[in-house]
Amino acid sequence: MSNSFDLSRCSLNTATIKHATLTEAVTTAAAAGYGAVGLWRDRVQEVGAEEAGRIVRDAGLRVSSLCRGGFFTDLDVERTRAAVDDNRRAIDEAAAVGTGELILVVGGLPANPEPGMGVSPDAGQPERDLGAARERVGLRLAELVPYARERGVRLVLEPMHPIFCADRGVVSTLGQALDIAAPFAATEVGVVVDTYHVWWDPQLAASIARAGAQGRLAAYQVCDWVLPFKEDTLNSRGYVGDGYIDFEAITGWVRDAGYTGAVETEIFNTDIWERPFGEVAERVAADYAERVLPFLS
Amino acid sequence: MSNSFDLSRCSLNTATIKHATLTEAVTTAAAAGYGAVGLWRDRVQEVGAEEAGRIVRDAGLRVSSLCRGGFFTDLDVERTRAAVDDNRRAIDEAAAVGTGELILVVGGLPANPEPGMGVSPDAGQPERDLGAARERVGLRLAELVPYARERGVRLVLEPMHPIFCADRGVVSTLGQALDIAAPFAATEVGVVVDTYHVWWDPQLAASIARAGAQGRLAAYQVCDWVLPFKEDTLNSRGYVGDGYIDFEAITGWVRDAGYTGAVETEIFNTDIWERPFGEVAERVAADYAERVLPFLS
Description:
The structure is a homodimer. By secondary structure, chain A is α/β, with parallel strands linked by helices.
């Protein structure tokens, strides 16, 4: 089909149609007239990164980002080494698939070593030193940046909604992400604005402007905050326009910060995952056209 | 029973034993050796505020705070007038029950007028201008402060976890609460630190210090962030020590900020609500003694 609106900056993140194979996702996005796709590693690994890049290019699409590296806040030396190795593979995949932006969900508070190892009175309980976990994010970036730079890949910190601070992402605000990014060049470490994660932040406008001024605004992802939560709280996000988020305001801040890249719609929602892929892609494109595109330039 | 540790600053919030009547809650707290109780308005209204104050005093306890006023972010004139009137009643109740601290949960993004009134293309959808809703908090405070001041009651802003931004509290960080409080005297508008709501904040230590320096630190509430969420996400909070929050660090910041008031344990948890009141009070006191008291002075 062809749409009457410009979808060249509209990107479909594969997590929105979670059950689609890479080829199905790419075909769906191309058929709906999108300009790009955002890829998750599971879909890339299905066919291999080189082949995944070819499939996307052959469909006339761009890869707006690869999700995701990170999960490197552990205390344990062996698990940390494994995490760094996995992030190197993610960097390789980003380069091979044809994107310069690797999104990082940094990880939460790690578990202490299990009881029986006898290293701590809190053995088996969560490690609670949030400041230390946040410092480890900077340490892991320092390890990974040279490797990523050689491959033309930027590491992109994703501030996560504070609901995820304990178990997924100790980087909780865009301002904090920029503080952690500060020791690195803007071409080395960037940030992503995902409306779901940051919409509530009283400092959001200022932090987006700061990210833009520094040249670190690497990606813009959209989905909505809807209530009530479903039983599966964390997969209860909504289509753009169905919830509480002010897309006109946030998109305007992103525009004013000089962002000219793609807008990825990434929705974790178990109901949406059950719908036909084409139906979801059409709805996402229509929401983009109505709620985002008018404020993007 | 008598405990070997000092519970003079330990306060039992009635929400922790939600199904207890006021008299049951006071009896439970006194029997477990607490120094204070934090009261919710429903329990106060059960017997009337004067009588509630008498019941607490007769048991040898103090009232550490009254929960809660607020919910005054509406756009609608009539609903706003009703909310302000209700907050005046809450101020009266605080004074009558014997506390100078009225905690405010300010409210979320209001609904737009319903379709049919034809005032907006978004009629019936949430009002999405978060900045405007936040400004209305300051306007409502300005209306209420003279009334509260005359009655010796401080209005205490409660920053809420961003999970509640849409529907309960548009004040999302302690720093933002202090910004909103700034036009008022410290004796007029204070702030509360509730560990559940603010533990993730990268600026928490600095904001607590700022609150202390300004003399605005009006209350300290504790409960833990536990995972996984229960089906009833919002009533899934945990006993102090059962989750991810670093009570040593946060309590230390509160202490260093000069706070000398009570520590209220306020836990919303459907399982805990089903337990015998005395059992809960004993557990709360033991957690306080182990996880909070050592860092409080």
